[in-house]
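Following up on my earlier thread - several people asked me to post the actual chain instead of describing it. Fair enough. Here it is, all 224 residues.
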Amino acid sequence: MKARRVVFWSLCVAGLYVLVGTFLHQVAFPVPAIAPSLLPRAGDSVYNHLSGERLVFRQTHTDTDGEYWEADFFLDPHGAAQGEHVHAEAEEYFRGVEGVLTLSLDGNARELLPGETVVVPPGTPHRPFNNSEQTVHVIAGGRPARHFDLCLIQTWGLFMKADQKEPGLIPLLPFLSTVDCDVFPAGIPVGVARTLRLLVAPAARVVGFSGFGPAYDARSGRHP
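Reply from S.P.:
Thanks for posting it. Predicted structure:
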């Protein structure tokens, strides 16, 4: 009987937190609408000096009405993308142009040579590496785009502002819970990640972590 009461009151407290947190996150302290100046456009360039990644966008979700994004992706010698991740709905591809890109795909390493294309299906954990002594150049893209390109620009800006390759998930939650990034850390079921994002994002906002904004704009000449 006592255990049932504990479970009951625990569920009540959790439900109250969700209701109050959602009110604070969406109503009392809503994230502002995305300013047009923050939206990525074809030709925009972004460089992450922490990971050695550079993107020059060919097409963005803004240009294609959310259908797809595509960019020239450059990775410095011995650079690596920040964290293995999955896309719940988007299909991502990499097409080799110059150098050899190493892709971690669901725990297996795959080398991508110039002229070759690798398609990463939705739900597949992946992470690009450069294990060589030269800069690698590939064409990368994804379909549907959602807001992935915007999320990339903003999260890279957050990482560089914190001067950490991976400053933790908490600072990202207010942003990731507001726009459709369709990117989740590998190793955590997407449903669980979405639930945690919903639960923790309100608290992150209240204690001072902000969502997207000019402070995190990592495009060339725009980040702090």
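Residues 60 and 69 are 4 Å apart (CA to CA). That should answer part of your original question.
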